[in-house]
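chain below, 596 aa
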Amino acid sequence: MSRLAQVSENGQKVAEAIASVLKVEVEIIDTELVRVAGTGIVRNDVGSRLLRGLVNKHVLQTGNHIFISEAGFHSICLSCPLSGRCFYRASIVYPITAENEIIGTISLIAFDDVQKETLSKNTGTLIEFIRRMADLISSKALEREITAERMVMTNRLEALVDAVYEGVVAVDSDGLVTHFNQSAERLFGAKKENVIGKDAGEIFPALPLFEVLQEGKGFNSREVLFNFGGRRLHLLSTARPIKVDNSPIAGVVATFRDFKETQRLAYEIMSTQEMVDFEDLIGVSKSFARVKSKAVKKSAGNLTILLIGESGTGKEVFARAIHASGPYGHKPFVSINCGAIPENLLETELFGYDEGAFPGARRGGKQGKFELADGGTIFLDEIGNLSLYLQAKILRYLQDGRIERVGGGRLIPVDVRVIAATNNDLQEMVRKNLFRDELYYRLSVIPLEIPPLRERPQDIPLLLDFYMKRFSKLLGKDIRGFSDEAMKACVKYYWPGNVRELVYTVEYAINLEENQLISLESLTPEIREGTRKKTRSGLAGDGRLLQLAQLEKEAIAAALDRFGWNDEGKIKAALALGISRATIYRKVQKYGLKQA
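prediction:
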């Protein structure tokens, strides 16, 4: 559609107004010689293309206006088939220009002697008048294009804001909500149409938006707790004032994210995706230094290693360091939690599948974790959760170095170093026929037992300082240490969740702390209380260390004491312990755990 055609309605109104005042007819033509507006006998031809239009072509090409006093007899008309008998009597044709581009013409036309006389007697005045009308139509075309461009930009902005994972809320200078994206709808449980244009102070009185409006200063990663729609929301918010040059604040835009999701993401960024070597393993205690030294020595080979330790002691970090320091360090490190994936899916995750292996199988099949790790290392976490059938397939690989895809008939050679980890007592599982003895012996060629955090208290200050610096940078805060009272409470604490719980505790504290030193009040309630139930101590009455299975039982019970024994509490406890929701339900049933 031509630029003039897009404003044909405006052009028609202009044409009719001119015709009514001057008593001559008006015709507006675009660059394709299509009538976009017309009056009189050409009104019915609006939308059709001129068959000849030699005069209009001339004006479009030259950019100069022209007055035809005797239509059909002008030199431009001589090549026209209607030369000498044109149904036009006279005309003034003027170019319509927008930003130095000719976009069409506007013509005053005479179809009888009276109209011809009007054009002939007032030619100069009419040319000036029609020039102004051409400018008017041009401005309408430009205005329409600018409006359309702004609409496109607005739609793009809306689409961009809606695509953002964080909830985005914006208010104008009066505190009225101007933007509320789809993520905000999901986060707050409110519909956009019920929020836009409403007073944010009435709908979201607890949000710190008006503080930014009044003070003109934004903030980063502030924790926000409030009730909305019958729910208790725990969010992390960042806000910025909207400023235009030196004008007063035009509004505020704020982003919101679920606090628990932020915790999960931060932990993944720090521990899951980064490269780790032995320099990153923090600890000076004798027990930790001993296992670290042993790991350094054994990393140089390619023998299978079994990491033993409670949940949260850092078994995967050790695995990554062993991988990075060994001959496979420049190749892939592939990790899989054997307790977090249903058994019917775990086989295909580990070994892949061939095309047609089952309904819905991807065309061409799919590689499993072993194939993806070829040349590198595969880390099998929670290997004690494997079924006897999958244990047999792992054993078969360790024996002949080949795997078989689900639904496949060929053996695929794969060169992978296996590092396994468990918090179960595999020897006890072997005795109970829950774990294959051949696999256990294969895996435990080099066993490394990682001590729990409570057995290395001198390492706690080092870990607290390390993660304090990491989270301070990540969350944009100027936190420089712990108060003496907070540090003593942390060292004294039992740490049933080990390093994973310590990481969560530091992040929790930094999100709450507003000063440069983390105070006791910013620590989790468990650490502030500084006591644990004796039945959750992890020690027998005579002080003997309990078996790993008992320690696992104690850790799960302690986590449930903290987060609650209902469904929501079990989900939170599973997240804190680094196990799946299904696993924690299974463990609760296995150990017969009940709320004390």
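The chain has four domains: 5-146, 164-259, 274-449, 459-591. The chain has 22 helices and 19 strands.
thats it, cya
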